Here is the input.
Amino acid sequence: MKSSTKDQAQGAFHQVKGTVKEIAGKLSDNPKLESQGTGEKIAGQIQEKIGQVKKVVGK
Here is the structure.
């Protein structure tokens, strides 16, 4: 699997995982879990963008 495709897939996975944590934190009234989910979701978005840039650059 190419590095760019791998980054995009992992980024999408982390976004979904972060969203689930964020929702679980809201439902359980746990701000720490909610903030962890938000952070993971943002990190997933960044990783996905890195994969897109690698694809354009050709790495």
